[in-house]
């Protein structure tokens, strides 16, 4: 499937919300086409380059579909949109159009079955609940209780201050239990002051 890409300095996860301000013509045109066709676009993390101006020179080969949930004109006159992370995908190949929009052929990664939370996940669930008290997290509706391991792993991976490479590794990991174990290990490293 061909998918337009929005290259950002962030990693979007399934079920997570992202607010964007759109002002570049390439992305405004992309959004018009997405609205008309009734589909979303892809979000990929920039490895080399900038979010604005010319297309990113290098970006991650794994990304997340962005489903447009809401839009409005911001007080500054820019278009504001809220997207929700959908399916994960792998970029097969890509090209940069004349308007600097990146379009890619993608392969959808398998859907992940939601597994119930176990007792050993109680600390991570409590951490998400605590994060949910922050006004920004609360405004995105990402705090509180979740339905299972996948949702918990996605929200924590999205919200916690891990490096882009660590977040991409978590996005690429299919098994929710494995992702939660990795998050535990990364949190221990953060607590110990390790990178």
TrEMBL record:
PANTHER family (UniProt xref): ATP-DEPENDENT PROTEASE LA (LON) DOMAIN PROTEIN
Gene3D superfamilies, per database record: BPP1347 like domain, LON domain-like
PROSITE patterns cross-referenced by the UniProt entry: LON_N
Pfam family, one: LON_substr_bdg
Domain Lon N-terminal: 1-191
Protein name: Lon N-terminal domain-containing protein
UniProt lineage: Bacteria, Pseudomonadati, Pseudomonadota, Gammaproteobacteria, Pseudomonadales
């Amino acid at each position: 499937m061909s998918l337009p890409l929005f290259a950002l300095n962030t990693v979007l996860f399934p079920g997570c919300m992202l607010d964007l301000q759109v002002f570049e013509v390439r992305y405004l045109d992309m959004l018009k086409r997405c609205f008309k066709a009734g589909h979303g676009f892809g979000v990929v993390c920039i490895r080399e380059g900038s979010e604005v101006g010319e297309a990113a020179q290098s970006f991650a080969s794994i990304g997340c579909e962005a489903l447009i949930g809401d839009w409005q004109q911001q007080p500054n006159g820019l278009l504001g949109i809220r997207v929700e992370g959908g399916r994960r995908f792998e970029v097969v190949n890509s090209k940069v159009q004349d308007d600097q929009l990146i379009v890619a052929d993608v392969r959808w990664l398998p859907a992940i079955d939601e597994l119930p939370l176990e007792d050993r996940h109680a600390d991570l669930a409590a951490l998400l609940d605590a994060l949910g008290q922050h006004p920004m997290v609360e405004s995105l509706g990402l705090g509180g209780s979740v339905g299972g391991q996948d949702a918990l792993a996605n929200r924590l991976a999205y919200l916690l201050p891990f490096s882009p490479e660590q977040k991409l590794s978590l996005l690429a990991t299919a098994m929710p239990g494995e992702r939660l174990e990795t998050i535990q290990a990364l949190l221990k490293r953060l607590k110990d002051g390790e990178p």
